Inverse folding.
């Protein structure tokens, strides 16, 4: 039965509910697998085996007694390590928070536990979610399960690698400028960035508040719909959480996309897009056409400016958000007790933060400083308006908009890490959805030389239903049969 | 100086400026980091100057994508565990956070 760890959450829940599989056995298999392959992949920062097994026993007892169980019914979930878990250290992959144990749960964690989801551990990421490769982790990089020499994408690289190597059945990531979709694309997982405001950010350690959302990383679209249904809820603790009725997204798992209008965004196939990626995405578009969808190309001119605008806004917000890390109330504090006030701050932040975080704080401080504010921050926010308008206009003609998730295939570990600008360029297709606040999904669409390619679909605000319907239809009719090998 | 050079010179950030900003952000940087950052930050700023091409006159900024304004809730005290919080403070004295010397 140990093969069960490779199944989707939907299939595992079915077996658990039918009492064909005990939750304790399944969770034990998951940890057996983690012990076997985690050394090669390094998807996790912290594992929570004891509490997971205890929770599994509780759920088994509930099932034996015939009590009602939650929708996640014992499924093992990996949580990105920037989402607070009460009593479980939450590091943001930073030395700054290496020993930080949150005294409270993020709202999404409460929602998952309410539905009987079981937390397996906390996943590796780029420090404070700043990066596209999971190489900027204080704890060392995560390796792509499809090719261990390559990056899994980032910043939620540990979550995607854990799900795809079956070291977790579901995972949560966070997406500020593509950080869910990029690793989903690089690892051949499904990753969804919800509409801004759909999922509570309470307990998500902030990087750039106006851009980020928590979302699911899963093996398939069905699981994505299930996990989204559990975490999308209004939360009074997040003032940007939108108060709308709770939806069951599994209702949209419908195999029918006839007459759906797809807009193919020309700018997302710009300079720097690898031929194999372009071909993989176009093949997928042709497949959607076979299923009855209509497509047309469209130009969103201002998207050419989305990357610099995104980085200016994200860095500015980061410089403000990360000002809280003084190392006094929590976080890294240098042991030397003779320094004065300023020296303590300077040293805590020098030794507590990694290079990429420091670069972004410094540039963000610069962009917000007197004399530069109008030129950088304000200008970028105005371009954001133009990008939003481009999307609004496009959605008058099209139901959804399409492009590649990533312009490139997964690159080698070490290839881009010393050239920040080159690394930023990888985010070029991901950031527009964050600037506009619209939902966007990455669906695995093919492989080139054994490396995964992701198809990105974007919808108008709160139209996650369309993403799920299209993604589900695609996966149902054109399943990718390539299986991960080499780790058994 | 022609127009291109002017733009480039304007976008450059000197080592002195980096040191000043790092001080404002309270991050001590080593000489080696300063050398490295100086090159990297200037490359990034030159790339950022791409946004100068866009005419944004009379365009309002989008600080936020939602139309929510003044979302308030009742300011109610809820129970919390002081012991849990005390446990995450790096240096304490009794029930207090130990801060560095002011003077």
């Amino acid at each position: 039965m140990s093969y069960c760890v490779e199944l989707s959450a939907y299939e595992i829940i079915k077996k658990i509910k039918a009492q064909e599989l005990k939750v304790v056995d399944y969770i034990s298999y998951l940890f057996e697998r983690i012990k076997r392959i985690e050394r090669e992949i390094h998807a996790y920062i912290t594992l929570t085996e004891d509490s997971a097994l205890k929770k599994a026993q509780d759920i088994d007892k509930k099932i034996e007694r015939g009590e009602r169980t939650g929708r996640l019914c014992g499924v093992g979930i990996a949580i990105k390590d920037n989402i607070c878990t009460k009593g479980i250290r939450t590091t943001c992959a930073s030395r700054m928070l290496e020993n930080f144990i949150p005294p409270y749960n993020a709202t999404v964690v409460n929602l998952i536990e309410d539905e009987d989801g079981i937390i397996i551990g906390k996943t590796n990421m780029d420090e404070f979610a700043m990066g596209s490769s999971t190489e900027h982790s204080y704890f060392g990089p995560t390796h792509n399960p499809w090719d261990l020499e390559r990056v899994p994408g980032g910043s939620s690289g540990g979550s995607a690698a854990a799900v795809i190597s079956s070291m977790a059945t579901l995972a949560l990531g966070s997406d500020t400028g593509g950080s869910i979709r990029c690793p989903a694309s690089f690892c051949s997982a499904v990753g969804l960035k919800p509409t801004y405001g759909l999922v509570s950010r309470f307990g998500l350690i902030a990087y750039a508040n106006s851009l980020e959302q928590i979302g699911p990383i899963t093996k398939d679209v069905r699981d994505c719909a299930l996990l989204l249904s559990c975490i999308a809820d209004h939360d009074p603790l997040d003032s940007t959480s939108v108060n709308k009725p709770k939806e069951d997204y599994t209702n949209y798992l419908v195999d029918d996309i006839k007459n759906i209008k797809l807009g193919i965004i020309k700018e997302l196939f710009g300079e720097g897009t690898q031929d194999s990626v372009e071909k993989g995405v176009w093949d997928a578009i042709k497949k959607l056409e076979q299923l009855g969808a209509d497509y047309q190309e469209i130009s969103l001119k201002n998207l050419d400016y989305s990357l610099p605008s995104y980085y200016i806004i994200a860095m500015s917000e980061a410089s403000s958000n990360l000002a809280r890390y003084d190392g006094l109330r929590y976080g890294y504090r240098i042991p030397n007790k003779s320094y004065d006030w300023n020296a303590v701050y300077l040293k805590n932040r020098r030794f507590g933060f990694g290079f990429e975080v420091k670069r972004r704080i410094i540039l963000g401080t610069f962009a917000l400083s007197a004399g530069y504010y109008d030129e950088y921050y304000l200008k970028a926010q105005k371009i954001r308006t133009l990008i939003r308008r481009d999307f609004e206009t496009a959605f008058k003609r099209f139901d959804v908009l399409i492009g590649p998730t990533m312009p490139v295939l997964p690159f080698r570990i070490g290839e881009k890490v010393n050239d920040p600008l080159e690394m930023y360029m990888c985010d070029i297709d991901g950031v527009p959805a964050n600037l506009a606040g619209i939902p966007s999904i990455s669906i695995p669409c093919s492989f080139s030389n054994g490396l995964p390619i992701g198809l990105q679909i974007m919808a108008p605000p709160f139209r996650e239903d369309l993403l799920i319907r299209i993604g589900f239809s695609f996966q149902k009719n054109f399943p990718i049969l390539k299986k991960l090998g080499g780790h058994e | 100086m022609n127009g291109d050079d002017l733009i480039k010179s304007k976008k450059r950030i000197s080592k002195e400026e980096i040191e000043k900003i790092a001080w404002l952000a309270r991050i001590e940087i080593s000489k080696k980091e300063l050398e490295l950052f100086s090159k990297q930050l200037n490359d990034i700023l030159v790339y950022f100057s791409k946004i100068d091409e866009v005419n944004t006159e009379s365009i309002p900024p989008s600080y936020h994508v939602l139309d929510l304004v003044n979302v308030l809730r009742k300011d109610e005290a809820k129970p919390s565990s002081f012991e849990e919080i005390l446990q995450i403070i790096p240096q304490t004295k009794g029930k207090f956070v130990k801060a560095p010397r002011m003077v």
